[in-house]
């Protein structure tokens, strides 16, 4: 049924060339793209739990928090202004990614990264020196524009620069950098939290990854694909020779030319992706990022310190707990790198989903036991430790399933003519729902109480069933042959016309394997 793996034919093209210095530098710049995104995700929760920050910018939240236990635990951080501080960034990134898609296409990937880096740097400086909420929010919007540009251009840059045999590893390398950014942010929050100016250091230090991506992109060459698409054939060929470290690039260059022509023949990739034969791709590019956010992961990533404080942890213990979940996140992402091409995407999605459901239900039960629906009570030390362990269990499950696969799967299932439209949908949907969760989580916690964890658990049940029935296995399938997979799927097969499948000769070279 929904499963089924593929063995690619042994004649899959391998081009000449080696891993050159250029490709390695591209990895480092990609890491910076992931770092700025991860740093933002990780920094805001810690900052919004710092007393010096709250008393300066959000005095009413600060007062409510200090008033003690007579009000519901679930509601003491509920402030739209406070959540707007966190989530405004993702709204800006959502709109910026649409502009970034255009800039990336017309002016190249490099200019897009450079612009993203500079705007992000301006945002970091503005936040570090902020004297009022307006400066904070404008700073966050600038950071968001930077993230929008980086998330659109860096993954594209990477997949165009990387030799094909490195593409999968590099893709999850981006997620790895995100998790490292989150962890570093957690450590920085922990280090500076007790200082009066701690929040300035936390927010201002975002300038470090910003300088890295800005300076890095000045020295980077543009990709051959991008140079070619802008009409400079000879320059593109020279660049390909340079990055592959060989003169023998004719075959790969021909592929680039074919791909560029094919993409040019399609009039309007937006109208194309809406055609029935692209229904599976459209559905996956929309639903995967949507589901990724409805795992509830950013409740933990943004608000772990606030959440742990709500559970009765002290200030330091709350920030330390965020560092612990950050470490688990990095470590489990590494496991995903090792497993993704062996166990396959489906196995990781299904196992991760089940593990998340179990953890979320147990967390809900523990919180209900301690605080009931009135939100009054205390959690014992032993129980709060158990909640921390369950949350680590949940984060690990996300980090080897929906975290990296949420970016990998949409990027590998689309044929070239709709690949960048698919990627733009993926980024935009991801940012839109990150914004929604970021903006409404504290209010949802206030109203749904411990039921919030059950709410997300229900969503994980839905998405796990979706994966089981609707996502075919794509491990080891060459990108150009992906339509074979869709064609054979029990449901999506009806949408794929015969002529959209790579020649019958090729399909016969691919044989089914037991799931
Ligand atoms: C998600 C982020 C999330 C992060 C956690 C990413 O894949 O897109 O929203 O915060 O993983 O590691």
Tally of separate helices = 23
The share of residues in extended strands comes to under 5%
**Unreliable residue stretches:** 1-12, 502-515
> Taking Cα atoms only, what radius of gyration do you get, to the nearest Å?
23 Å
- Percentage of helical residues? over 70%
Shape: globular
Which ligands, by name, code or SMILES, are bound?
A: beta-D-glucopyranose
The spatial strand order of the largest sheet comes to 1-2
Membrane topology: Multi-pass membrane protein
Subcellular location: Membrane
Organism: Linum trigynum
GO molecular function, one term: monosaccharide transmembrane transporter activity
What does this structure look like?
The longest helix is centred in the last third of the chain and has 33 residues, at 416-448. The chain has 23 helices and 2 strands. Mean pLDDT is 84; it is low at 1-12 and 502-515. It is mainly alpha-helical and 515 residues long. The protein has a two-stranded antiparallel sheet. Bound molecules: beta-D-glucopyranose. The site of beta-D-glucopyranose has 15 residues, from helix 7, helix 15, helix 19 and helix 20.
